[in-house]
Amino acid sequence: xxLNAGTLxxxxxxxxxxxxxxxxxxxxxxxxxxxxxxSDPDAVDARDDVVIPGLxxxxxxxxxxxxxxxxxxxxxxxxYEALVDIWWKVDEAFTTEDxxxxxLGSCKEMLxxxxxAFCDNYSGPNTLPGALDAVAEGVAETPIRGLxxxxxxxxxxxDEAFDGIEENQRFVRDRENEYDRVTGHYxxxxxxxxxxxxxxxxxxxxxxxxxxxxxxxxxxxxxxxESIREYGERPVHALESMxxxxxxxxxxxxxxxTDEEIEVLGENDVAVAxxxxxxxxxxxxxxxxxxxxxxxxxxxxxxxxxxxxxxxxMRTAVGIHKLKKNDPSGFDMATALEWATIGSATVMxxxxxxxxxxxxxxxxxxTLDLGPNPVRPESAPYYVVSAASRADxxxxxxxxxxxxERSEGVHAVDDAELxxxxxxSADLWERI
Length: 432
Hints:
Residues 50-403 form the Amidohydrolase-related domain. This protein has helices spanning 79-93, 96-112, 131-140, 158-175, 196-209, 221-231, 235-241, 259-267, 276-281, 289-294, 310-325, 333-347, 380-387, 415-431, and strands at residues 2-9, 17-26, 29-35, 44-53, 55-60, 115-122, 145-152, 182-184, 186-188, 213-217, 249-253, 271-274, 299-301, 365-368, 393-398, 401-405, 409-410. The strands form two sheets. Strands 5, 6, 7, 8, 9, 10, 11, 12 and 13 form a nine-stranded parallel beta sheet that branches. The longest helix has 18 residues, at 158-175. A hairpin with a 3-residue loop joins strand 16 (401-405) and strand 17 (409-410). The chain has two domains: 2-53 and 356-410, Roll (Urease, subunit C, domain 1), CATH 2.30.40; 55-347, Metal-dependent hydrolases (TIM Barrel). The chain has 14 helices and 17 strands. By secondary structure, the chain is of the alpha/beta class.
């Protein structure tokens, strides 16, 4: 494939923005970026577009899709109430077919919005074993890249948590090789829903399999309060005492982490999945990303299952960090695009393959039709973050193949299956 790009936002180490270039992809890999347009009649014509790397969503919950529009009467006044009154009821009502269809529907949405890779955590305790097979099936019906896990929790019993750990290992060892673009990892829901023995077992399995563990860390104050009550110290210190950081860890949220805890995360090479839209929606607070960056912690961005438009998630990050400082110049807007591309790829351990447009990386691109205003190299990343939306995505390209076009939709996704997504959601509403 050859792509003619009017403006190419590379997100390489120099954060280069190039104009009027051709990008050549062979066998899914970028082999050359050269000045000037190719005359090849089969070249993808993005001469009037801004081309960015495929977006990377480093923390999502695809099983949240059926909850949209659900007639739920609960009115939680805290993060913990939202878990108890809404989310835990939903995930216990899930079937394996719900898992498959919610994954399919979410992947379609992500591709439409320019997301080419994601990291998902699925929670459905009544679908064990086999839950991740259903999720992987749904993902594999689309051409997206996915890192999936079962969200281990002992909230009902320790046995249920060990079943969750076993599900992750079973998928990684026995089923993952059946898929080209779906891989497994491990996930602990939180420290407050998993005792010491579950944490240690998860670390042992993950390190044996050389896979990361994702955890929701200090998203709400309940995590802090329960850790102090149970262990006499805050969550990061408690986890450190348990040897949790012997594994490769992706810590989602970290809203209430103190400066000292953030320093511990940095010392242990923990990566952070920042979820600004979700944190705003759940009213839990604003993560101290400034301190995280000071400690050299890799930061990526996720939607936490809330918003299929990653551009809105980027803009939310910009808004909350400016507001926190009461300074309209207090946050560099281009940083949000970094988090949504190379940053998230780094968090997921995939930055050697995706997240930027440069030779040797996979040919994952998004072409954006941003309208009539001129695009200048020095302001292109800012233009993307401030003005783009999923509606502006004209193409999503993975491994040099066009997998979504605005005029045609996502390639190879069956309409009957998409109709089934909505029907399954309506059935779920009846059960909850």
